[in-house]
Design brief:
Ribosomal Protein L25, Chain P; single chain; 4-stranded mixed β-sheet; 2 domains; RNA Polymerase Alpha Subunit, Chain A, domain 2; alpha+beta; 212 residues; 18% helix; globular
């Protein structure tokens, strides 16, 4: 597999909301590392490093976090983003071991177009999988090209990535191909349309004026 990304972490010495805000102003993101029967470790990393990691490797990224000269294999477990800027305000990491299997939610996307006159409805955005920590897929892509109205893709129909096991309910509906609903006109528009139809009918029924 490709070489893991390595990010330098610094142990935190100050805590609380004020300290976290100061870190973010200085271009740092506070993190907490959990797992493997260790006490939580509070660190901070460069904002650009973490943003690049998540952008390039996804929300389940696995990487080497160096703390005080020691590399720790970790994966992103949860991200807290600013609701306005979408910048990462905080993240939780899970300390893992090579060869360990973990449960992760993997994003699901679809590509292609259904049959003419059909519309695709995606009911779930993620599927829960059990997979080797170093083989976590960034996403699952479903091909919906040419699917007809009434066809569905359930979780059990999704081809699993190598060595991955489906944990989500096998009968969970992922993709549903439906007939588009007719758009209803607002009441005012309907009344106007009916008035126009009635006026057109009256004009058609009116006798033509005789010419002298």
């Amino acid at each position: 597999m490709a070489e893991l990304t390595r990010i330098e972490g610094v142990l935190r010495t100050e805590f609380g909301k004020g300290a976290s805000r100061r870190l973010r102003r200085d271009g740092r993101i506070p993190l907490v590392v959990y797992g493997n029967e260790l006490d939580p470790v509070h660190v901070h990393v460069d904002t650009l490093d973490l943003h690049a990691l998540v952008r390039n490797e996804g929300v389940n990224a696995v990487f080497e976090l160096n703390i005080d000269g020691e590399d720790n294999l970790v994966m992103v477990k949860a991200i807290d983003q600013n609701v306005l800027t979408l910048d990462i305000d905080h993240a939780d990491l899970l300390n893992v071991k090579r060869g360990e299997r973990v449960e992760v939610e993997v994003p699901v996307i679809h590509e292609g177009l259904p049959a003419p006159g059909a519309m695709v409805v995606q009911d779930v955005d993620v599927l829960l999988l059990e997979v080797d920590v170093l083989d976590i897929p960034e996403e699952i892509v479903l091909d919906i090209n040419g699917l007809e109205i009434g066809e569905q893709i359930l979780a059990k129909d999704v081809k699993m990535p190598s060595n991955a096991v489906l944990v989500s309910d096998a009968e969970e509906l992922v993709i549903n191909i439906v007939e588009p609903e007719e758009e209803e006109l607002p009441e005012d528009d309907e009344a106007a349309a009916e008035g126009e139809d009635a006026a057109a009918g009256e004009e058609a029924e009116a006798p033509a004026e005789s010419e002298d």
